[in-house]
Design brief:
The complex is a heterodimer of chains A (181) and B (145). With 181 residues, chain A is mostly helical. Chain A has eight helices and no strands. Classes of the chains: A mainly alpha (181), B mainly alpha (145).
Chain lengths: 181, 145
Amino acid sequence: MIFREVEDRDLIAKARKGDVEAYNLLVSRWEKRVFNYLLRLVSNREDALDVSQEVFLKAYQSLPKLDALDRFGAWLFRIAHNEAFSLLRRRKPEGEPPLERGQVRGSELLPMELSMAVETALGRLSEEQREAVLLKVYQGFKFEEMAEILSCPVSTAKSRLYTALDLLKATLSPVILRGDL
Amino acid sequence: MSCEQYDWKAYALGELTSVDRREADAHRAACESCQNELAHMRLTVEALGALREEEVPRRIAFVSDKVFEPRWWQVFLRPSFAAALVIAAAIVAHGYIARPANDAEIQARIDQAVAAAEERNVEAVNTVDKKLTDFYVKATGIVRQ
């Protein structure tokens, strides 16, 4: 017997009709990507998890509004982007002590040195620049999809990414080439 | 300085078309600056790939969440609910059809049954009596008056 993997669009269609299990399967397929994206953006594990829950809840409630089922990924990350920046905006007026970018508050450091160096370098970027790297390098979105998620022109998304890459190159290349790692 | 018209970031990210890539390769072969630019950009992108992906601390699921409960009318569409509904309807119908009678009805049924039994007994006695009479006549030749 040949088993065909159920497509996301099939699961979305079922979830729209109230099939909770179909939606849970969809969540299990996307939760790790969404969580990691949010973790690098908000730099806090608990916040990333809370926002992830919120993202999937809002996505479920908004499923009937999703026009193109094939664009579920970009649509989901658009919700994640909105939720993450909503949290970041709420944080700022509270005058919380600024975290060193890239450090995950209250959690253990990552074990691999290169991974730490990358995390630190990512933390030195602005939120917009870091997000552009996350969407392109880690999530593999096309520039058009990035523009859709970020709600900005393609040229802006590309510009943010390229500026970020220049900064990352300046930070990471010397460290790697010196053989510090 | 690299030559501005060549997009080495797009090259390192694999975003160039095959035509643009061939053109960039041809230029790079003769341009040390662009070779360095691409090498550093590749190094950077590869280093970014070393960032460890984190596991989700706990499963994100909403089965128990109220908003994920089906609407009231969707409950009727569940097979288990429909089966339970049919069984319940059958029990109610059976109870109505075979409902217990009141005392007067019971007494009437008893009287009817007793009357029927008595009638059957009379018939049986008459039958036996007739058989005995026939036997007697056959055996003695005497017809009893």
